[in-house]
């Protein structure tokens, strides 16, 4: 299986073109649009979303990850094997949190290049074909490199920021929920919120935080859009008021 995570968005031709390339090179391989609307050009936010949203992928899955504001430059192209899954994408810090948390890691650089390589769409021309080949068990054109050669930004293991706003206007953060006591009071965009286990327990219109289904702290309102009502945006700092 190939799982796609990218900031290309659900509209436009980009994901469709990548899927077409995959189908041409690996017909019959299942392709899942796992997270097609990561925050645009936000490598840092995507780096913290990757571990949470790839944890349920079966072993052997190839995760095609493209958040690549440096497309067309001399940055490396990577094929990483982390805890029995492949991750294909640019060497720009996108995989840094996964690498820091992973246990079984093999780092490889993609040296293969297609006959025609667009300067603005390596997702289609480079990463999608490599993902298709890996899904078929073909790993030629990639060579092992030292993990120390990779781009590893100095980011914390837990990120106290909003990293994604979902279609309900809920604010997903880079904090792992299991690390916070239920008594913790959080503050974001000037608003404070307490832990509530379910939406129904919060009552309509009340801001609260909860443990989302992928293990991250999420800030929401029952039957209302938290970011719409409060002005919360991606990048806003989460402050622990008390715990």
TrEMBL record:
SUPFAM superfamilies: Bacterial fluorinating enzyme, C-terminal domain, Bacterial fluorinating enzyme, N-terminal domain. InterPro entries: SAM_HAT_C, SAM_HAT_N, SAM_OH_AdoTrfase, SAM_OH_AdoTrfase_C_sf, SAM_OH_AdoTrfase_N_sf. Residues 161-239 form the S-adenosyl-l-methionine hydroxide adenosyltransferase C-terminal domain. The keyword S-adenosyl-L-methionine applies. The keyword RNA-binding does not apply. Keywords: S-adenosyl-L-methionine. Residues 2-138 form the S-adenosyl-l-methionine hydroxide adenosyltransferase N-terminal domain. PANTHER family: CHLORINASE MJ1651 (PTHR35092). Belongs to the SAM hydrolase / SAM-dependent halogenase family. This is SAM-dependent chlorinase/fluorinase. It comes from Thiogranum longum. The lineage of its organism: Bacteria, Pseudomonadati, Pseudomonadota, Gammaproteobacteria, Chromatiales.
């Amino acid at each position: 299986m190939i799982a796609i995570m990218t900031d290309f968005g659900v509209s436009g031709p980009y994901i469709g073109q990548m899927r077409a390339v995959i189908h041409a090179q690996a017909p019959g391989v299942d392709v899942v649009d796992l997270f097609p609307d990561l925050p645009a050009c936000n490598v840092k936010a995507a780096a913290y979303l990757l571990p949470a949203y790839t944890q349920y992928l079966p072993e052997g899955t190839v995760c095609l990850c493209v958040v690549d504001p440096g497309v067309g430059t001399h940055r490396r192209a990577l094929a990483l094997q982390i805890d029995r899954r492949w991750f294909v994408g640019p060497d720009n810090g996108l995989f840094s949190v996964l690498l820091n948390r992973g246990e079984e890691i093999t780092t490889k650089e993609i040296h293969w290049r297609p006959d025609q390589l667009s300067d603005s769409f390596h997702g289609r021309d480079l990463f999608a074909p490599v993902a298709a080949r890996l899904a078929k068990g073909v790993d030629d054109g990639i060579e092992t490199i030292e993990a120390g050669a990779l781009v590893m930004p100095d980011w914390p293991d837990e990120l106290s920021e909003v990293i994604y706003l979902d279609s309900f206007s809920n604010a997903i953060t880079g904090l792992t929920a299991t690390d916070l006591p239920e008594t913790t009071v959080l503050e974001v965009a000037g608003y404070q919120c307490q832990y509530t286990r379910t939406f129904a327990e919060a009552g309509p219109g009340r801001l609260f935080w909860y443990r989302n289904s992928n293990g991250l702290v999420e800030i929401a309102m029952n039957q209302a859009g938290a970011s719409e009502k409060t002005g919360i945006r991606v990048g806003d700092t989460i402050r622990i008021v008390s715990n």
